[in-house]
Amino acid sequence: MSAAQKPVSSEDVLGQKSNTPKVADLLVKAGVGFGAGVVASVILFRRRTWPIALSTGFGAGAAWADCDRSFNPARIPGTRIIPQSEAPPSK
Question: What is the C-alpha separation between 26 and 74, in angstroms, rounded?
């Protein structure tokens, strides 16, 4: 390998993935779900609380799934992980 193509250590990869704002994503998606739940509760469900809890949970679940996909790329639909021994040699 040349000096320009240094291998990246696994600690650096994990550091890059954990530096992305996962908590901010959770707050935004749960907040959007909360807002949608409040609107649905007031307009459609006679001020019941379950639409608020349900939509907030949907938002938090979407944020959790995004975070899980960033740490485990095998969970991305259509992605195939090729072991290093079977990979074609790089140029």
Answer: 22
Q: Report, in this order, helix, strand and coil percent for the chain, each rounded to 5.
A: 65, 0, 35
What is the average pLDDT value for the chain, to the nearest integer? 85
Give the domain ranges of the chain: 22-71
pTM: 0.68
Cα separation of 73 and 81, whole Å? 8
* Rg of the chain over all Cα atoms, to the nearest angstrom: 20
Burial (Cβ within 10 Å: 0-12, 13-18, ≥19) of residue 46: exposed
- In this model, does residue 20 exceed pLDDT 80? no
What's the pLDDT at 63?
93
